[in-house]
Amino acid sequence: MADLKTIYDAVIVGDAPKVKGLVQESVDAGVDPKAVLQKALIPAMAEVGRRMKAQEFYVPEVLIAARAMQWGLNILKPLLAGTGLEPAGRVAIGTVKSDLHDIGKNLVGMMLEGAGFEIIDLGTDVSPEKFVAAVKDKRANVIGMSALLTTTMPNMKKTIDALKEAGVREQVKVLVGGAPVTQRYADEIGADGYAPDASSAVDIAKSQLDI
After folding, report:
1. pLDDT mean across residues, the chain
2. Kind and range of the H or E element at 207?
3. Model confidence pLDDT, tens digit, residues 182-198
4. DSSP states of 12-38
């Protein structure tokens, strides 16, 4: 039977087939799926995030590790569904209206999922109404908005305004990020947090939810 440290190491080096095989081997042997998640996959992605912040890992290494984590997580998800394990939070993530860039958004989503969050990926070119619907209909308690173009940044404020008009602004934490976005801009539009990179997004989401 694979030990959890072996799974942890395989995630960090981004060996997706090995992670998939080891996770399957573990659950087949009766290891608690929650233990695999909480003692191997989540800690491994936390270490990947640490290395990214320390500039020991860059985007390619992080994407490869995140893919490996997801291969393992895909095996665990059906098993975890029956355990009553609640996600750390539900994050509706998307690139704002009129913006079709998704690499940064995808990376943030992977890192958040690796930290135990449930991800509701709204995709790109997401209207304010779709973000509102994610809060109302899918019970998202965090919204993550990305923009790569300065011309689409105003749609972040429009989304926050739409949340207020719908009466759900107080139910959700709003995080923003993207190359042209700054902490100052986040403050100006009334966002709850700004993440300069994917690893920081995890820390900020946790702090906003007091995790």
Report:
1. 93
2. helix 198-208
3. 999 999 999 999 999 88
4. HHT-HHHHHHHHHHHHHTT--HHHHII
Structure-block tokens of residue 162: 């739409």
Tell me which H or E stretch contains 174: strand 173-177
pLDDT at 1 over 70: no
Predicted pLDDT at 104: 87
* Selection from 30, 117, 32, 104 nearest residue 69 by Cα: 117
Whole-angstrom distance, CA of residue 187 vs CA of residue 11: 36
User: Three-state DSSP class for 161?
Assistant: helix
CA angle (10, 81, 169) in 5-degree steps: 100
**What mean pLDDT comes out for the span 22-35?**
94
Average pLDDT (66-70) is 93
What's this model's pTM, rounded to 2 decimal places? Answer: 0.82
pLDDT at 2 over 80: no
Dist. CA 203–CA 205, nearest whole Å: 6
Asked if 96 and 156 count as a contact pair (C-beta separation under 8 A), the reply is yes
> Among 97, 106, 113, which Cα is nearest to 153's?
97
DSSP string, 86-155: PPS-EEEEEEETT----HHHHHHHHHHHHTT-EEEEEEEEE-HHHHHHHHHHH--SEEEEE-SSTTTTHH
The tokens for 183 are: 């902490």
